[in-house]
Amino acid sequence: MQKIGLLFLILFATLKINAQSFNYKLRLTDNVAVSFPLRPTKGSGGSYGCKDSTGVVFAVSVSDIAKAINFNKSTFDSVVVEKEFANDFLDGFTPSMPSYKFKPVSVSTLTGRVTYQIEGRDEENKSNIYYIAIFINGKAYNFICILPDGKSVRDKNLFFKGITIGK
């Protein structure tokens, strides 16, 4: 019985050491936040990101997309749900990531907000990109995880589950 208890203690300690916690909460606005595994650094514009010790990249950015394309909020809200607009959105950022081959955009809703989910593969660098864009009041809240081959999707899932959206 003591051996089983010791085994569970060792197993728990090993899992605790290997488990990455997402304790660095970044508030993007009063209503949108996300948790990172490390303290993110500020990039250009409204972007933040970090790379963990295993090479997994986590990043976020906010862009006023309606303003950038000269749409008022109601016009933007009516087109953002359309598949054609989602495809144009994907076409707009793929030139900045030429080594990735992207799958079609999946359009859905999250807490009543239009959401795009995009996945891509970089064969040359052996990594996958996972991208979620959530549209709120004409702004795109972009959440990105780049996962090298051989890395568990657990941390990607924790990152995306760490997105909080208020009312």
Low-confidence stretches: 1-18
Largest sheet data: 8 strands, antiparallel
CATH architecture name: 3-Layer(aba) Sandwich
CATH fold-level name = Protein Transport Mog1p, Chain A
* Counted beta strands: 11
User: If you average the pLDDT, what whole number results?
Assistant: 86
Quickly give the structural class.
alpha+beta
Radius of gyration, in angstroms, nearest whole number: 18 Å
Distance between the termini: 51 Å
Q: Count of helical segments? A: 5
* Structural domains: how many: 1
| Helix percentage range | 25-40%
Beta-strand proportion: 35-45%
- Taken from the alpha-carbon principal axes, the silhouette is globular
Written as H for each helix and E for each strand, in order along the chain, the element string is HEEEEEHHHEEEEEHE
Question: What is the CATH homologous superfamily assignment?
Answer: Mog1/PsbP, alpha/beta/alpha sandwich
Per CATH, the class reads: Alpha Beta
Topology:
Blueprint: H1 2-18, E1 24-27, E2 32-36, E3 41-42, E4 48-51, E5 57-63, H2 65-68, H3 73-79, H4 83-93, E6 101-102, E7 106-110, E8 113-122, E9 127-136, E10 139-148, H5 154-161, E11 164-165
Antiparallel strand pairs: 1-2, 2-11, 3-4, 4-5, 5-10, 6-8, 7-8, 8-9, 9-10
Question: Notable features of this structure?
Answer:
167 residues; alpha+beta; Protein Transport Mog1p, Chain A; eight-stranded antiparallel β-sheet; three-stranded antiparallel β-sheet; 11 strands; 37% strand; globular
Write structural notes for this entry.
The chain is an alpha+beta fold. It has a single domain, classed as Protein Transport Mog1p, Chain A. The protein is 28% helix and 37% strand. It has five helices and eleven strands, in the order αβββββαααβββββαβ. Strands 3, 4, 5, 6, 7, 8, 9 and 10 form an eight-stranded antiparallel beta sheet that branches. A three-stranded antiparallel beta sheet has the order 1-2-11.
